[in-house]
Write a structure and sequence with these properties.
Helices cover 54% and strands 6% of the residues. The protein is mainly alpha-helical and 562 residues long. The strands form 2 sheets. Strands 3, 4, 5, 6, 7 and 8 form a 6-stranded mixed sheet that branches. Strand 7 and strand 8 (542-549) form a beta hairpin. The longest helix is centred in the middle third of the chain and has 34 residues, at 216-249. The radius of gyration is 27 Å and the shape is elongated. The N and C termini lie far apart (67 Å).
Length: 562
């Protein structure tokens, strides 16, 4: 039970704030402005559109590497935007993200000792939950389609199930305990299925069972059944997409880890973004301090938040205190201190271990702050649980925790991932009111894309029969030779030239260099005519330029990429 049972006024307070809280975050999302982030323009909108309209096989990698991401998480936003005004869509998304408040409250309630007076327990849990929700990373993502603070619902929900029931996973009989951890794993695995970087929390929360206490067999079985739940959650939300990628590209994670799967559709590279990972053990140990000074060490925008850093320091101090107490006990006459083996105590240890291990996995795999948002939210709960272990009077521990929470709440500063003014009309079928030029022969038109700017969100504004081929991007380049994606595009271009199709190039005005450096590799060139603007409310105008063959098809080298 996560609500007071004796103090009715405390119960009403908790219920009213928990019911109103998510909607307040929905209003906050609307006040922040319409989302116009890079990823929305690059793939969140296009992937859902392509999935629902069956554009696979028509377009080739228009959203760069993200063209191959699982579109399941993008579908609700896309479909809601077809029928609801943009402000309503943003409010709903922000409210869903605001539901993390309820889970953080539940976790903060759970880690407090049951003997704590109910009113105090409610106030502490609410304060911790609010502190977790106003972090610089979370607020910056509020109402955006990055979804890291949507995936956090699965992570925090899974952890809450794992530690709930007064530590039932460790104190209940095998059957109920294993069913509980399967459900917990199912939630975390669902997050992984929807967004793969969530794997850091799946590994951390699973491995934590191995060290949280109990007999070796019990610990192993808890981890095993949790892992089964993770696999089931992944299968539910990404099994269909992994099968699709395997069937079409011989790599269920395409293009990632293609150095393992060797799909002929891409180069034999891992395609991982590892530029943020700290180099060397000293840099790794000091990393939270480093990004506190320079947030661009963990992402693309400037923000300020010290929650993870504070939890990092508090957990290190707690570990040193526990170690010192244990060492003193080894040499004391009365022997080592007695370890609390109750279910709630093991649940608190599990929570601290899960947070710590997840951070270490994140540090090794990504070191991208957005992927750590669930831990930013969880950090105040970890601080509450860790400080409770300090050898100090309860009043002193309470003051230390309160001061830390106030400092963290006061010093956070969110960054922006691009907000744009609200349009006069809803998103509608043409997101952000795309205005594309009228093309005279849409049934005989091919549009190429080059450069690195996100432009695939413009595709729904064009006639649906027009294919889009991205011949160069940060994912693909003609220099990659005869990989099947290049071969497919070359064949489509050759066929279009032979059929007399009209060719156009969609690109940003700062990437016109690609007309001279990329198009000739495919036997094309600019037509020497003024380009036409493609306008939207999400970005500055892009350019649509007519292009023509370098020479007649009959005399053309039919293998320009090589």
């Amino acid at each position: 039970m996560l609500l007071p049972t004796q103090d009715r006024s405390a119960r009403r307070l908790a219920l009213s704030l928990l019911l109103a809280g998510p909607f307040l975050f929905g209003l906050w999302a609307v006040l922040l402005g319409q989302d116009g982030n890079w990823d929305l323009r690059n793939y969140h909108w296009y992937n859902a559109y392509a999935f629902l309209t069956g554009r696979w096989g028509m377009d080739v990698a228009p959203a760069q590497v993200a063209s191959f991401y699982n579109p399941t998480l993008d579908l609700p936003f896309f479909m809601a935007s077809q029928v609801l005004p943009a402000r309503v869509v943003e409010f709903l998304l922000g409210s869903i993200q605001g539901a993390n408040l309820v889970l953080l409250y539940g976790l903060a309630w759970t880690v407090q000792r049951s003997a704590t007076p109910e009113r105090r327990r409610v106030l502490v849990a609410l304060a911790v939950a609010v502190c977790g929700m106003v972090g610089g990373g979370q607020v910056g993502l509020l109402g955006t389609t990055f979804y890291d603070n949507v995936i956090s619902l699965f992570v925090l929900g899974g952890i809450l199930v794992a530690v709930g029931g007064e530590g039932a996973a460790w104190s209940a009989p095998n059957g109920p305990a294993f069913r509980r951890v399967v459900l917990a794993g199912l939630l975390v695995g669902s997050g992984v299925g929807l967004k793969q970087p969530t794997i850091v929390f799946a590994v951390g929360t699973c491995a934590a069972f191995l060290a949280a206490g109990g007999t070796p067999w019990r610990r192993l079985l808890l981890a095993f059944f949790f892992g089964l739940g993770v696999l089931a959650g992944m299968a539910i939300f990404s099994g269909h997409w992994m099968w699709f990628l395997w069937s079409h590209f011989q790599n269920p994670l395409f293009p990632y880890f293609n150095n393992v799967f060797h799909s002929p559709w891409g180069t034999p590279d891992p395609y991982r973004d590892d530029k943020f990972i700290p180099k060397g053990p000293v840099a790794a140990a000091l990393f939270p301090f480093a990004w506190a000074l320079d947030p661009k060490l963990v992402g693309e925008i400037v923000f300020r938040d010290y929650r993870v850093l504070a939890a990092y320091v508090v957990l290190l101090l707690t570990g040193l205190m526990v170690l010192a107490r244990w060492l003193r006990g080894q040499f004391a006459a009365e022997g080592p201190p007695v370890v609390d083996t109750s279910g709630p105590a093991r649940a608190r240890r599990y929570l601290l271990l899960a947070g710590s291990l997840s951070y270490l996995v994140w540090l090794k795999l990504f070191a991208i702050y957005r992927y750590l948002i669930p831990l930013e939210m969880l950090a105040p709960v970890l601080i509450l649980a860790a400080v409770a272990l300090w050898p100090a009077p309860a009043r002193a521990r309470g003051i230390i925790t309160a001061v830390l929470l106030l400092l963290l709440a006061a010093t956070g500063q969110s960054g922006t991932w691009a907000r744009v003014p609200w349009g006069d009309r809803p998103f509608g079928a043409k997101v952000s009111e795309v205005q594309a030029p009228v093309l005279p022969r849409p049934d005989h038109t091919v549009i190429l894309m080059t450069g690195y700017a996100p432009t695939s969100f413009l595709i729904p504004g064009f006639p649906p029969q027009i294919p889009f081929l991205r011949v160069q991007s940060y994912f693909i380049h003609p220099d990659q030779g005869d990989i099947l994606l290049n071969r497919q595009m070359r064949r489509r271009i050759d066929q279009g030239i032979a059929n007399g199709d009209d060719f156009y190039l969609l690109l940003a005005h700062w990437e016109t260099w690609t007309m001279d450096q990329i198009l000739p590799r495919y036997g094309l060139k600019g037509a020497g005519e003024p380009c036409q603007p493609v306008t939207s409310t999400l970005d500055e105008p892009m350019m649509l330029c007519r292009i023509i063959p370098l020479q007649p098809a009959a005399n053309r080298d039919m293998n320009p990429v090589n």
